[in-house]
Specification:
52% helix; six-stranded parallel beta sheet; Dehydroquinate synthase-like, alpha domain; alpha/beta; 11% strand; 14 helices; 2 domains; 8 strands; Rossmann fold; binds nicotinamide-adenine-dinucleotide
């Protein structure tokens, strides 16, 4: 029998297609942002596309920010808010990865300005009401519907030259949203369908781009998968896996997307047995008979680092992180203590294939 559930769908307008970048000016008009009122935020890696967008925005354009950093440092957020006021912005167009969209969210959080997000990676932030900001190495995150982008424009032409190294890590980040959506306290059957379909599309796209980085159909599949992954994250929220990754990223300055690839298979080994139905569905979508090892093998095949050691963490730091995290008494479908968390993080540190069951 189907158990009762609560599902909250979030309102965003989604436009996906090759050449969709050309539609951004119309999307600006649809939101009624107005002449001379658009603040453009652009990741440096897509400067050329941002230049074209600036021209296409024409007299709607008010100003531009090109300085974007991972995890939204507080001083960057303050500078961006000041810039939005200085140019009299009524709306933001953010083009780039999760960091550019994160900066736009920092402005929206205090001003309420609407965001049009044009993602060029697969982080999924564009689909969530989650914001983040880092002060002295401490990353604060929160949820506020005001930061959810009103419109998301996915154009595979923007990511078809995304380096393979960035692509594979970013796909691991998106897969983490899909997998964790199965076991958070807010998991529900509608989110599960979204997450399973997202994971299927991500794997399919990934396997093709490994052979041909510029395959447009595969890049479309990856954006579609990222959209579903972000949407699953938005409704299911975060659990043990994302919280561990945030702690590691904030305290030891590890790269966000790559950290997911090292930690996810180990947390999956711990948690997947607690959600057998969803686990079986995800295994079918990923064409594997074991979710944890299936993810690990997919990451190895993609060439994304599967150990925290490769990212620069020391074994002692892994032990320290487990101790710190255990002290926060995390809520998890499988009860965890310092010993279990140490096992998970030492395995993630060493990059061990996640076989067998957790002690
Ligand atoms: P990112 O935006 O820093 O981009 C990763 C790298 O890809 C950068 O070096 C960037 O310059 C490069 N890049 C981006 N687009 C490119 C392109 N088209 N061609 C070539 N290079 C390109 O990082 P990310 O992995 O996209 O996002 C990670 C950030 O997003 C983290 O701060 C994370 O916390 C945040 N995030 C937030 C949410 C949320 O819901 N709030 C969800 C996921 C991630």
């Amino acid at each position: 029998m189907l158990e009762g559930f609560v599902h909250v769908g979030l309102p965003s307008r989604i436009v996906l297609g090759a050449g969709a970048l050309d539609r951004v000016p119309d999307e600006v008009d649809l939101l009624g942002i107005g002449i001379g009122k658009v603040l453009l935020i652009a990741t440096k890696a897509v400067r050329g596309d941002a230049d074209l967008l600036e021209v296409a925005l024409g007299d709607r354009f008010a100003g531009r920010i090109d300085e974007v950093r991972q995890h939204v440092p507080a001083e960057r957020a303050e500078a961006a808010r000041a810039k939005a006021i200085e140019v009299g912005a009524h709306g933001i167009v953010a083009i780039g990865g999760g960091s550019a969209i994160g900066l736009a969210k920092a402005i929206a959080l205090t001003s309420g300005l609407p965001i049009i997000a044009v993602p060029t990676t697969y982080a999924g932030s564009e689909m969530t009401p989650v914001w983040g900001q880092t002060t002295d190495g401490d990353k604060a995150t929160g949820t506020d519907p005001i930061v959810l982008p009103k419109t998301v424009v996915y154009d595979p032409l923007l990511s078809h030259r995304l380096p393979l190294k960035v692509t594979t890590a970013s796909v691991a980040n998106a897969l983490a949203h899909c997998v964790e959506a199965l076991w958070t306290p807010k998991a529900d059957p509608i989110t599960e369908v979204t997450a399973v379909e997202g994971a299927r599309a991500l794997r399919e796209g990934l396997l093709v781009v490994l052979g041909n980085r510029s395959d447009l159909e595969a890049r479309s599949n990856l954006l579609y998968g990222a959209c579903l992954a972000g949407s699953a994250l938005a409704s299911a929220g975060t659990g043990l896996h994302h919280k561990l990754c945030h702690l590691l990223g904030g305290a030891y300055n590890l790269p966000h997307a790559e950290t997911h690839a090292a930690v996810l298979p180990q947390v999956t080994r711990l948690n997947a047995p607690a959600v057998p139905r969803a686990k079986a569905r995800l295994e079918a979508a990923l064409e594997t008979d074991d979710l944890a090892t299936g993810l690990f093998d997919l990451f190895v095949k993609s060439g994304v680092p599967t150990s925290l050691r490769e990212l620069g963490l020391t074994e002692q730091q892994a032990v320290e992180a487990a101790r710190k995290f255990a002290a926060s008494k995390p809520d998890n479908p499988v009860p965890v203590d310092e010993e279990i968390l140490t096992e998970v993080l030492i395995r993630a540190w060493a990059g061990e294939r996640p076989e067998g069951v957790v002690r």
